[in-house]
């Protein structure tokens, strides 16, 4: 798959319940999945990784019946995704989401939501919820170091304040990796989460628009085989390049 997170998700969706191994050559606006899996952003090294063929099975999340690989959220970032201008996104890339988030914070208000995790008898309320399958959020920012994309669990981060000041405090906390110490944030783990609200609240999934609340979010453990580097060391990347070049220039490679 040559593309960003949205492209990979569409391929996974198209394969249905019995997916083939996926090789990723990162390209596009956002490539958080490749970052999480240690796949090089250099297309030559990424191609060499695919040729090497080392596989890892990762979890796939579902919003109702739609697959996602990274996260689902409501709140400011969902508003930003819904309000982002496509021409701005093409021109500015990821910065377009920051611009849209600032505009959304000034002009919109996130609706209050309720999360329910029946298997753990948990109910809680807030204004922004991130249900994450990946430790990365919005690029290279880490939601939580301990999150694993292959542990069969979804990680829930619930922010309980809604003012502009509090929202930007949260975003600053994520950027500086200090959100874990904020008293008005709750952290949960689970296999199935229900998100409801009195009025429909906007939702985003892997950086794209998604159906509004109410939603059911759940996970399939080890559902998708992905071709990844054997390790994430630079020396391995160099060896992968050598493998690719040897393959390309070997006798009979082009016959």
TrEMBL record:
<keyword id="KW-0808">Transferase</keyword>
<dbReference type="GO" id="GO:0005524">
    <property type="term" value="F:ATP binding"/>
</dbReference>
<keyword id="KW-1208">Phospholipid metabolism</keyword>
<feature type="domain" description="DAGKc">
    <location>
        <begin position="1"/>
        <end position="67"/>
    </location>
</feature>
<dbReference type="GO" id="GO:0016301">
    <property type="term" value="F:kinase activity"/>
</dbReference>
<dbReference type="GO" id="GO:0046872">
    <property type="term" value="F:metal ion binding"/>
</dbReference>
<dbReference type="GO" id="GO:0005886">
    <property type="term" value="C:plasma membrane"/>
</dbReference>
<dbReference type="InterPro" id="IPR001206">
    <property type="entry name" value="Diacylglycerol_kinase_cat_dom"/>
</dbReference>
<dbReference type="InterPro" id="IPR050187">
    <property type="entry name" value="Lipid_Phosphate_FormReg"/>
</dbReference>
<dbReference type="InterPro" id="IPR017438">
    <property type="entry name" value="ATP-NAD_kinase_N"/>
</dbReference>
<dbReference type="GO" id="GO:0008654">
    <property type="term" value="P:phospholipid biosynthetic process"/>
</dbReference>
<keyword id="KW-0479">Metal-binding</keyword>
<protein>
    <recommendedName>
        <fullName>DAGKc domain-containing protein</fullName>
    </recommendedName>
</protein>
<dbReference type="Pfam" id="PF19279">
    <property type="entry name" value="YegS_C"/>
</dbReference>
<dbReference type="Pfam" id="PF00781">
    <property type="entry name" value="DAGK_cat"/>
</dbReference>
<keyword id="KW-0444">Lipid biosynthesis</keyword>
<dbReference type="InterPro" id="IPR005218">
    <property type="entry name" value="Diacylglycerol/lipid_kinase"/>
</dbReference>
<keyword id="KW-0443">Lipid metabolism</keyword>
<dbReference type="InterPro" id="IPR016064">
    <property type="entry name" value="NAD/diacylglycerol_kinase_sf"/>
</dbReference>
<keyword id="KW-0067">ATP-binding</keyword>
<keyword id="KW-0594">Phospholipid biosynthesis</keyword>
<keyword id="KW-0418">Kinase</keyword>
<dbReference type="InterPro" id="IPR045540">
    <property type="entry name" value="YegS/DAGK_C"/>
</dbReference>
<keyword id="KW-0547">Nucleotide-binding</keyword>
<keyword id="KW-0460">Magnesium</keyword>
């Amino acid at each position: 798959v040559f593309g960003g997170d949205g492209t990979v998700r569409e391929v996974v969706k198209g394969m249905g319940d019995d997916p083939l191994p996926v090789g990723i050559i990162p390209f596009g606006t956002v490539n958080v999945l490749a970052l999480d899996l240690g796949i090089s952003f250099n297309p030559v090294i990424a191609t060499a990784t695919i040729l090497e063929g080392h596989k890892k099975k990762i979890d796939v999340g579902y919003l109702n019946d739609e697959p996602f690989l990274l996260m689902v959220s409501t709140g400011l970032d969902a508003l930003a995704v819904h309000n982002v201008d496509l021409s701005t996104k093409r021109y500015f890339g990821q910065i377009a989401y920051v611009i849209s988030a600032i505009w959304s914070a000034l002009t919109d208000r996130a609706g209050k939501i309720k999360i329910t995790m029946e298997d753990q008898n948990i109910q809680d309320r807030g204004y922004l919820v991130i249900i994450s399958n990946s430790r990365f959020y919005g690029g290279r920012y880490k939601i939580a170091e301990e999150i694993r994309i292959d542990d069969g669990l979804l990680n829930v981060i619930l922010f309980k304040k809604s003012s502009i000041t509090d929202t930007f405090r949260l975003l600053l906390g994520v950027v500086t990796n200090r959100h874990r110490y904020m008293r008005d944030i709750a952290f949960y783990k689970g296999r199935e989460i229900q998100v409801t609200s009195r009025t429909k609240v906007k939702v985003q999934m892997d950086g794209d628009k998604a159906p509004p609340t109410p939603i059911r979010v759940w996970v399939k453990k080890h559902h998708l085989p992905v071709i990844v580097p054997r390790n994430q060391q630079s020396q391995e990347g160099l060896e992968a390049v050598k493998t690719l070049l040897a393959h390309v220039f070997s006798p009979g490679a082009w016959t």
